[in-house]
Amino acid sequence: MNLFTWSFLFAVLLSLALRLYLSQRQIRHVKQHAAKVPAAFRDRITLQQHQLAADYCVARQRPGQWQAAADSVLLLALTLGGGLQWLWQLLAAYGLGGLWQGVALIGVLALLSSVLSLPFSLYRTFVTEKRFGFNRTSWPLYIADMTKGGVLAAIVGAPLVTLILWLLHAAGDWAWLWVWCSWTLFSLAMLWAYPTLIAPRFNRFTPLADPALRERIDNLLARTGFHSDGVFVMDGSRRSSHGNAYFTGFGKTKRIVFFDTLLTQLDEGEVEAVLAHELGHFKHGHIRQRIATTFLLSFLSLALLGWLLTLPAFYNGLGVVDTAPALGLVLFMLAAPAYTFPLTPLFSLLSRRHEYQADDFAARHSSASELISALVKLYRDNASTLTPDPLHSRFYDSHPPASLRIAHLERQAQ
Predict the structure, then answer these.
(1) Based on the number of CB atoms within 10 Å of its own CB, is 177 exposed (0-12), middle (13-18) or buried (19 or more)?
(2) Which positions are catalytic?
(3) How do residues 30-45 score in pLDDT, each as one tens digit?
(4) What is the dihedral of CA 404, 407, 413, 414, to 10 degrees?
């Protein structure tokens, strides 16, 4: 045991304690405010709908606590418990060595993670979501999605993992930089490939057919100077009744996607306002900023990894005897989230600022009152709690709490 051991153990326990503490605060706060609809929503959301949202929030928190505990136990078992070292030796006993031993190790860990997370996914989909009327996923569709996801991960992930491990073996002191370049190019390629090659394997995308709504959208795009590869409707109702809209791709592959459930929830003016909000993210450069931030953080992380790979104490302190690059990469990937979890509020704060900016853009180029109406419907129909715990919200939430967001838009509408 060394400094790495103690700092890692502290980070894991602190992260778990924070997760459980914040979850309990959320449960307690939501329950305490379930008996009364907030004043800003009393003429828009009934007490029954408000209480349903409270129950849904609490029901989602409980399994999350168990999963956080299970993840922490697994993490400690793989590292300080010697699980990684045992797997490494087991693969060697089957005749694997060098590059392919590392590829096999990462494959086994990915499979293990999927198997252990499966019960939580099943419970979330077929118990919690079904209980509150949101789940529309059938067992055959769930199995098909899981199978296609696994095949896609193998087809795309295996060559990438092989390349990264080969670079770590062969590229010397600057291997981490070559890995970063490869990862960056891969990420950019996925931004291009996802909307046209990957997403259609899971959902059906059809051009928006409603002529009146299409005309409103075209006018909005013209006013804001936005160009896209098309406006599409996705059959999200096959899996869930939750509604959403998003942009995907970049350059000439940018496309606007509406869930079919969203189009049944909102009227034309509200859909236009929601789209204006999404356009606000693009016009303010939020998407580019997030991509750039991701690349910067991955650069710094891989530079740190390059240094840690040279330190036997890093391996030994986290329960591994051998000092192979593949083991160092896996240890880093397992340990890093525990150290970075306390930084989550910083990214949440930045995201909430972006949401306010996008709301302001929508208020200028569409209608603040229509966006308010759309958001209230989405809060109601998606059973989003109107009374989150303030600390939990500041820590996790990428969007401002409902009351603050509506109040902000009401000021814009005046």
Answers:
(1) middle
(2) 278, 359
(3) 999 999 999 889 889 9
(4) -140
